[in-house]
Amino acid sequence: MSASRELDSLVQGVIQQDSNSLAATELDIMEAKKYLSLHKLKRAKSSVRKAEKALVTLEEDVLYLRRSIAMLHRLLKEKKIDRIEAENILIGLRKATSNAEIGDVGQAATEIEFLVDDLIGGNTSTLNPFFFRHFWLGVDTRWPAGGDSGVLLVRLINDGPIAMPAMRLSPPVPEGWSSIPSSVDLPIIAPGGNLPLRFDIKSEGRYGADEIPLSRKLAVSTGYEMRSGEIMVTIRA
User: Which of 34, 50, 84, 233 is deepest in the core (most CB within 10 A)?
Assistant: First the structure.
């Protein structure tokens, strides 16, 4: 019960601290107004850009923190915890609250994720990486001349501050196609890590001699940039 109260307090604190964390941004806006009044447009633009950058970072951190809190809250409802676990949770929540109070929302989210990690026994593969990680996923195709199969190239880059857990990945093969292998077990990817993967893909249907060879088909490259639940997609043909 004490852990739940502490968690509720942290949630309310984050909501209130959103405005407190904007203090530095407000100073940048005030500077911009001052420079505009003095007709110093270059400096005003610089201050506005700083404020915009700070707002984007804060928005990402708050989203990350709230999702981590939601996961912790769900685990506390579903899992029976002993006294030692409860004490560790309270200590972790106090650390997270302290970080949130000084505007370090990103570190507060990390503290909550550590608690989630402890509650699930270190098996972070149960956390959806699309919600809890920053990474880049590239998907590309190659069509070797003279063959009836293609190559699917997948690249994972962990450009976030936290290691990505080991997980199983099935390639994004379209309906009616098969891949070799059908899935792979990924190792832990450290921050800055780059993992290239290759899959041989083949259509399960047959093509006539008068149809366009695979080597002349359109190749599409797609990049997915994940930011704690937000996805930016880039497609190049």
Answer: 50
Q: Is the distance from CB of 225 to CB of 136 less than 8 angstroms? A: yes
User: What is the assigned CATH class of domain 131-236?
Assistant: mainly beta
134-142 and 221-227 strand pairing:
antiparallel
Nearest residue to 159 via CA among 112, 101, 227: 227
- Would you list the domain boundaries of the chain? 2-122, 131-236
pLDDT mean across residues, the chain: 71
Spatial separation of the C-alpha atoms in residues 10 and 138, rounded to whole Å: 37
> Do residues 172 and 137 touch, judged by C-beta distance below 8 A?
no
**Can you tell me whether residue 112 is helix, strand or coil?**
helix
CB 159 within 8 A of CB 134: yes
Please name the residues in contact with 130: beta carbons below 8 A apart, sequence gap of 6 or more: 226, 229, 231
- Tell me phi and psi for residue 187, to 5 degrees: -80, 175
pTM above 0.85, yes or no: no
